[in-house]
Write a structure and sequence with these properties.
Strand content: 25-35%
Structural class: alpha+beta
Strand order of the largest sheet: 1-2-6-5-4-3
Number of domains: 1
Order of helices and strands: HHHEEHEEEHEHH
CATH class: Alpha Beta
Radius of gyration: 18 Å
Shape: globular
Bound molecules: zinc ion
Number of strands: 6
CATH topology: BirA Bifunctional Protein, domain 2
Number of helices: 7
CATH superfamily: Bira Bifunctional Protein, Domain 2
């Protein structure tokens, strides 16, 4: 059994919908001659990140591992101001001794402050993803209103940026790492949402519409 199959076994709770998604996008990728779609190892939130290199790196190396990968990503979704069925994602994976969720939160906060300026805060909410335990979704202070509340953040002051969590020890077992020795975190973060926050774009569907009035601003 390949590492991909071993990791995919952990998908059981979502198997039906994930298998459908993978089959659909593989077929579309073949038809278009596009890149081969692979299963991501990050949070597993997204069915088929194109450039999910986590498993490959874990196959080739021993910890400590610190990687970030970028890729176009697909999932079944209804288009809305914050969701599109195809988008771009950066996945991060950190595996070392003694890594905790505090490291995850600190790293995210550092990243968002570098991207959006000091004063950004990060909050984590509990969630479920197949490859992380515990799992969280994370929000950043809304860039447009600095947390006061506006239509873009639905007056919550927060903007959802992605999914994350501590790497499930079961993943380490499948990869042959000792879960008593190693721990880690992973996240999946939408580049389109970062661009929307940074440039004050209220609807990420605008990135796909090729309206020159939008594009000429950049
Ligand atoms: Zn806001």
């Amino acid at each position: 059994m390949s590492s991909y199959d071993a990791i995919a076994e952990l998908y059981d709770p979502w198997s039906a919908s994930v298998v459908e998604d993978v089959a659909f996008y593989l077929e579309e990728a073949r038809k278009s001659g596009g890149p081969v779609v692979e299963l991501g190892v990050g949070t597993g939130r997204i069915a088929v990140p194109v450039a999910a290199d986590g498993i490959r790196v874990m196959e080739e190396r021993q910890p400590p591992i610190y990687i970030a990968t970028l890729g176009r990503t697909y999932r079944r979704d209804t288009p809305s101001p914050k969701n599109t069925p195809s988008f771009h994602q950066v996945e991060a994976l950190a595996i070392d001794r003694g890594i905790t969720l505090a490291d995850l939160k600190g790293t995210l906060m550092h990243f968002f402050r570098a991207m959006f300026g000091e004063g950004r805060d990060v909050r984590m909410r509990t969630s479920f993803f197949p490859f992380t335990e515990p799992s969280v979704e994370f929000d950043v202070t809304c860039f447009l209103c600095a947390g006061k509340g506006c239509p873009f953040c639905k007056y919550t002051g927060w903007f959802e940026m992605g999914g994350a969590g501590a790497v499930d020890p079961a993943v380490f077992e499948k990869m042959g790492y000792d879960p008593e020795e190693w721990s880690g975190f992973a996240w999946g973060l939408g580049l389109d949402r970062i661009a929307a926050q940074r440039h004050g774009i209220p609807d990420i569907r605008m990135f796909w519409e090729n309206d020159l009035r939008v594009l000429r601003q950049f």
